[in-house]
Amino acid sequence: MNFVDIIRSKRDGRELSREEIDFLVQGISEGSMPDYQIAALAMAIYFQGMSERETADLTVAMAYSGEVADLSGIAGKTVDKHSTGGVGDKTTMIVLPLVAALGVPVAKMSGRGLGHTGGTIDKFESIPGFRVEMEHKSFIEQVNRIGAAVISQTGNLVPADKKLYAIRDVTATVESIPLIASSVMSKKLASGAEAILLDVKTGRGAFMKEKEEAIELARLMVKIGQRAGRQVRAVISNMDQPLGRMIGNALEVKEAIDTLKGKGPSDLEELCLVLASHMLILGEKETDFNRALNRVREVLAAGKGLDKFMELVKAQGGSIDLDDENYGLPEAQFKYPVIAERSGYIAGVDAYMIGYTAMHLGAGREKIGDSIDYAVGIELNQKTGDKVAKGDVLAFVHANHEEKGREAVKKVLHAYQIEDAIFQKKPLIFEVVE
Ligand code: URA
């Protein structure tokens, strides 16, 4: 067996055997397959696709290319949650304490953000003192003690995906359904949870621009998980405009706390309630969706989600001051308004453009290893469907650099589409795949 013959087979549209896939993944993780051959392989898969069996074999081979988390020491059925990447997506910070308060243990390993999408670990790290590194033993112990823990993915989790994803990122081969499915699911399998809830995003700010593609991706991920003996469900949600009103790490923590206080934006709260309800079912705490939804609503209204969030923050060394207007989170030096240049109805707020603008302000990374400014970001005052008059404030740019801030104001203005007539808004949640 050699790499060139296997790349040629895929280039010509043939199905690869499990042995060939294992050989490739071993070559990628050991470093014996050079980057140019990995790039050629990714492009061949991009054009020729992969069958469900090939994708499942690739996923399992990647999942076992490094360390695999052992969560057997956790009492109860562990449920993981994963979003395929969005703008303003702070749902993990809200959903995790809500379900933990209802007895579903969550041992969360999360990644850092790249490009226009944010990463959960960066958001948690914007809380002063919050530690995202922990010994495995302490991780398990914390989940058993308080029901939840969040850590950064260890360096040796799915090394084959790390290498392949980095090459896909610079060779225009990210947007391939089998490659995304195997990348996401390999990390989920290696993270060890028995059940997994996926939030598959679709729309302008997502990898999957079309709803049908997102559904195809979700179906494939659910099947791969089931083949590997895990229970998987996927919620398909809209990412045409950012989720909630805040984009940027500390700003998103602030909005997550507001939501746990029952004062969050309606779209964010709605998605969190739905995701938490599905996790309750996957965790076998409920069988009926409406009953699960009612229980999550009750926990939110009673402030138990906020209590659990504060317990989690404290357990991981973080400090939040609920009496402070900004909860003691980092704040940017400048706040620039973005002013509407015409009257009308907001027909869209381009999530991709907002995500990129936030990244350029310093809230995200253009490439792996870039540093982050936790305080900066964008605050949306108006969202799709809102009526605005010329001169109204559409948004605020939170910046620590004047020139970057002024540049961002122009881009945010451009991300707003204002029309004369009201139009039909798309739903926030399209469907559930299981
Ligand atoms: N997220 C991942 O982890 N992998 C992909 O390929 C795309 C999104």
TrEMBL record:
One MF term in the entry's GO annotations? 1,4-alpha-oligoglucan phosphorylase activity
Q: Does the keyword Thylakoid apply?
A: no
Keywords (alphabetical) are: Glycosyltransferase, Transferase
What does UniProt give as GO cellular component? cytosol
SMART domains listed in its UniProt record: PYNP_C
A Pfam cross-reference name = PYNP_C
- Start and end of every Pyrimidine nucleoside phosphorylase C-terminal domain? 345-419
Report which superkingdom the organism of origin falls in: Bacteria
Q: Which family does it belong to?
A: Belongs to the thymidine/pyrimidine-nucleoside phosphorylase family.
Sum up the protein's function in the record's words: Catalyzes phosphorolysis of the pyrimidine nucleosides uridine, thymidine and 2'-deoxyuridine with the formation of the corresponding pyrimidine base and ribose-1-phosphate.
Q: Which NCBIfam families match?
A: PRK05820.1 (NF004490), PRK06078.1 (NF004747), Y_phosphoryl (TIGR02644)
- Protein name in UniProt: Pyrimidine-nucleoside phosphorylase
